[in-house]
């Protein structure tokens, strides 16, 4: 997550509240109080390490590592206490969602699968991914939180934006829990980076952008990715782009400039240079035979 000075209530509507909490220098053993509304779901993303949470309405006590999260249902209004025994800043992002909003969104009466999803949410089955360990945020989740925190428009546009991003977050959570056959407690860095590139290589991304979005140092990303896949992050991005470009180049109805943009290149010259380096001929030469 990028650092942000925005703190407190970021958004509030009849169905949704977004709260960013960042306590710069918490006193040792001092506790922050987090409120959960009646009949609501709380998405809690822990953005600093070694945060302890104790829920007052049940016997739930958790120690969070940085970038873990939970999706928790509270039938009645309750409070939870968060604190850290280290000098680290306490930083978390909370989204509260009204039960009826989720009910209407999922529509459990429409299918058995939808009914099971809502039941799993109510039973708090989205707290532990496996081995009683809270799940880790994915790269996409980091990106969405950055967008929610930095979004500046107000009114209807903000409401639509927030609701769309929350739906995407829920989809990512459901997908992550459907893939719980993984054996690692935390996905390997090289896997996280590869998944991000596979889904975003067509955008104008750079290797250093991945480090900023994931909070992982660039040196660690480079080292582990090359060890796992025997090529650099930059080369892998370029490889995917060139494979896509080669498939598109045979369609003469698509302009070279359009192909460049579609493959993540802002400037045609950079695309042509990369294409020629990869295939030994320019895009025009390959298209014209």
Annotation keywords:
289 residues, alpha+beta, Jelly Rolls, Arc Repressor Mutant, subunit A, 5-stranded antiparallel β-sheet, 4-stranded antiparallel β-sheet, 9 strands, elongated, disordered N terminus
Question: Quick summary of this structure?
Answer:
The protein has eleven helices and nine strands.
Commentary on this structure:
It is a single chain. With 289 residues, the protein is of the alpha+beta class. It folds into 2 domains: 8-178, Jelly Rolls, CATH 2.60.120; 188-289, Arc Repressor Mutant, subunit A (Orthogonal Bundle). It contains 11 helices and 9 strands. It has helices at 99-106, 112-122, 139-150, 156-178, 189-200, 207-214, 218-229, 233-248, 256-262, 268-279, 283-288; strands at 8-12, 16-23, 32-36, 40-46, 51-55, 61-64, 69-74, 78-83, 90-98. The strands form 2 sheets. A 5-stranded antiparallel β-sheet has the order 1-2-9-4-7. The longest helix is centred in the middle third of the chain and has 23 residues, at 156-178. The termini are far apart. Residues 1-5 and 182-186 have low confidence and may be disordered. InterPro entries: Homeodomain-like_sf, HTH_AraC, HTH_AraC-typ_CS, PchR_regulatory_protein, Tscrpt_reg_AraC-type_HTH.
């Amino acid at each position: 997550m990028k650092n942000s000075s925005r703190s407190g209530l970021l958004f509030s509507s009849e169905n949704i509240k977004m709260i960013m909490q960042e306590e710069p220098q918490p006193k040792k053993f001092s506790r922050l109080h987090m409120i959960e509304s009646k009949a609501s779901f709380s998405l809690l993303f822990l953005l600093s390490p070694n945060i302890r949470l104790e829920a007052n309405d049940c016997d739930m006590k958790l120690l969070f590592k940085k970038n873990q999260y939970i999706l928790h249902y509270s039938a009645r209004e309750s409070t939870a206490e968060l604190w850290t025994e280290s000098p680290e800043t306490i930083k978390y992002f909370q989204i509260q969602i009204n039960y009826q909003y989720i009910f209407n969104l999922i529509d459990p009466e429409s299918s058995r699968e939808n009914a099971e999803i809502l039941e799993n949410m109510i039973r708090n089955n989205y707290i532990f991914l496996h081995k009683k360990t809270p799940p880790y945020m994915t790269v996409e989740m980091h990106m969405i939180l950055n967008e929610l925190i930095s979004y500046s428009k107000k009114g209807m546009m903000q409401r639509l934006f927030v609701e769309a991003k929350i739906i995407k977050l829920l989809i990512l959570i459901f997908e992550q829990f459907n893939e719980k056959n993984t054996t690692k407690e935390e996905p390997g860095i090289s896997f996280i980076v590869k998944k991000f590139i596979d889904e975003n290589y067509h955008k104008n991304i750079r290797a250093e952008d991945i480090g900023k979005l994931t909070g992982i140092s660039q040196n660690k990303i480079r080292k582990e990715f090359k060890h796992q896949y025997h090529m650099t992050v930059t080369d892998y991005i370029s490889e995917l782009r060139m494979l896509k470009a080669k498939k598109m180049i045979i369609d003469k109805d698509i302009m070279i400039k359009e192909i460049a943009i579609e493959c993540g290149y802002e400037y045609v010259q950079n695309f042509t240079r990369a294409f020629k380096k990869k295939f030994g001929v320019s895009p025009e030469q390959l298209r014209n035979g």
